[in-house]
Amino acid sequence: MRTKFTEAFGVEHPIVQGGMMWVGRAELVAAVADSGALGFLTALTQPTPEDLVAEIARTRELTDKPFGVNLTILPSINPPPYAEYRQAIIDSGIGIVETAGSNPVDHLPHLKDAGIKVIHKCTSVRHAVKAEQVGVDAVSIDGFECAGHPGEDDVAGLILIPAAARKLTIPLIASGGIADARGLVAALALGADGVNMGTRFMCTVESPVAHAVKEQIVANTERDTELIFRSLRNTARVATNAVSTEVVDIESRGCEFADIQHLVAGARGRTVFERGDLDAGIWTAGQSQGLIDDIPTVRELVTRMVTEAESIITGRLASTVDSRIGAVS
């Protein structure tokens, strides 16, 4: 399945494992790379830029296939040393970077001068167009179904993907609500050149999250997420649990961030992933939970998706078209 994305980024399959806080570590990323898809280490999962350099080296010990690093840039009272993480990426010889959060324009000259291809994750067509204008090499467009931050426009992928495809000339990756071959085929039909999956890759054997989290994803349906921070105009989609339900309840009565800060601390979410205590904090998961019913290896997942996608395209869809042509004749 060759697309503009696979040709431009040198990977076998049009499938991406995007950056996920506490999840994008060496074992998962190397397994994704070996499967022929494109995986991303998450820079800020590592406590320091030096730790990131070590994690990149550890990934290279596990695979000789291409992989990238995600650098999420968000405004903060005490921001991480983004420039130092960026330099660690450059010095490590990484060839692909996924940026997310804020406009990457300040980072692009440094990354591009180092010969790095940049994929920028957006949640709206206007931001995708701006990203192409400032010089990124591809855009990942995040629909409302996604885990994490879907933006404030509430536009689902069925509209967002083709709307972005009409405006862009660079490769487009569809993200949000995709977990199987049907999603891959649909995204390609809507104009995307590949798909990005987070929740689905989180629920694989090589994913570093606790097995209890994976089992909960399998048990959950598409309805088992909550939208938090809506009242603060910083919407995030997370799994339904005692903490996220409490946050939604507090927000419904009006609150400031300080009123819920103790509930949504990142360290608490990390505890969920590392210890499997599902109510220790909030943890991200998308509506694609409703499409996930097993915990395969990464290779099994990617092979199954590609094989089934080809079968859908050459089998069911082709036979449907042929039958309609026959009926018209």
From TrEMBL:
One of its GO terms (molecular function) is monooxygenase activity. CDD domains: NPD_like. Keywords: Flavoprotein, FMN, Monooxygenase, Oxidoreductase. Its EC number is 1.13.12.-. This is Nitronate monooxygenase family protein. It is an enzyme of class 1 (oxidoreductase). The keyword Nucleus does not apply. InterPro entries: Aldolase_TIM, NMO. Pfam families: NMO. It comes from Rhodococcus jostii.
